[in-house]
Amino acid sequence: MKKLIGDFDFCDGTIDFYLRVHSLLNKEIVVLDLGAGRASWYEDDYCLIRKELRCLKGKVKKIIASDVDKIVLENKSVDFCLYHRPYEEIPVEDHSIDIVICDYVFEHIQDVDFFLKSLNRIIKKNGWVCARTPHKYNYIAFVSSLIPNYLHSKVVKIFQPGRLEVDVFPAYYKLNTLSALRKHFTGYENNTFLFRSSPAYYFGNKILLYFLQGMHRLIPKVFVSNLFVFLQKK
Fold first, then answer.
1. What is the phi/psi pair of residue 25, to 5°?
2. What pairs with residue 101 in β-bridges?
3. What is the CATH number of the domain that holds 190?
4. Of 49-58, 164-173, 217-226, where does the model show the most confidence?
5. Domain tally for the chain?
6. How many Cα neighbours within 13 Å face the side chain of 132?
7. Range(s) of the domain holding residue 129
8. How remote is the C-alpha of 123 from its chain's centroid?
9. The pairing of beta strand 97-103 with beta strand 188-190
10. In this structure, how many other beta carbons lie within 10 angstroms of the beta carbon of residue 170?
């Protein structure tokens, strides 16, 4: 097998997404990584380029990790870590955040109204929401929606053998279509698009990976894509 120079493929969603995030960065802004978890990638990602792009510490005035799971306190990729209970206000001042990053978070939002209220409170005018999330009709999201949430960690363990149970969370897919984003983010300029991502679930089997890569190129984009969400508050 040919070596992939840089250890990333032609449709690496992490690299594409964070390159776009980087275009919005400067040393004067405050970034909140909402739903950041423990940042397993910071310790586990073997691709140095991808890891460097994803780590925003030192590239902005301040990067904060926030989550409703106490595991966020183990996050080593940021300047500050904040734990708050579900449906509690995020403990930051009103209109103090320039960019909110939600990396595979939208699919886990159950109370959309509360989530939007929280974002609107903390984001500055002209600030950004930058998110990536599976499209609701992505085949993985569709299968996930058919499986009870209490079984997700067991199923994910089969499809992604290296993923820990602590990194698996319930999914609801309420903000995971272009129309849902237009409906709910009415006070934002919407720059969302579909990104045809590399397969993420293939049992660690290279043959299956190659098959899925071919499938991702051929079938309609909506069934294999992530939403790359870039929303600017008016």
1. -85, 150
2. 33, 130
3. 3.40.50.150
4. 49-58
5. 1
6. 18
7. 13-134+174-199+226-233
8. 18
9. unpaired
10. 13
User: For residues 130 and 52, is the Cβ–Cβ distance under 8 A?
Assistant: no
Q: CA 141, CA 43: separation in Å to the nearest integer?
A: 26
Q: Which tokens hold the place of 73?
A: 């306190």
131 burial (CB, 10 Å; 0-12 / 13-18 / 19+) is buried
How much is the average pLDDT of 41-61? 94
Question: Cβ contacts of residue 36 below 8 Å, gap of 6+?
Answer: 65, 66, 67, 72, 75, 77, 78, 81, 103
Range in 22-31, 88-97, 120-129, 146-155 the model is least confident about: 146-155
Q: What is the mean pLDDT of the chain?
A: 87
- pLDDT of 210 > 90? The answer is no
The answer to whether 66 and 34 are in contact (CB under 8 A) is yes
Residue of 59, 58, 7, 14 whose CA lies nearest to 40: 14
Assess if residue 48 is contained within a domain: yes
Provide the pairing of β-strand 193-196 with 225-233.
Answer: antiparallel
Q: Rounded distance, CA 143 to CA 102, Å?
A: 22
Establish if 83 belongs to a structural domain. Answer: yes
Kindly state whether residue 66 falls inside one of the protein's structural domains. yes
Asked if residue 115 belongs to a domain, the reply is yes
pTM of the model: 0.86
Containing 28, the helix (H) or strand (E) segment is: none
The full length of the chain comes to 234
3-state secondary structure (DSSP) of residue 215:
helix
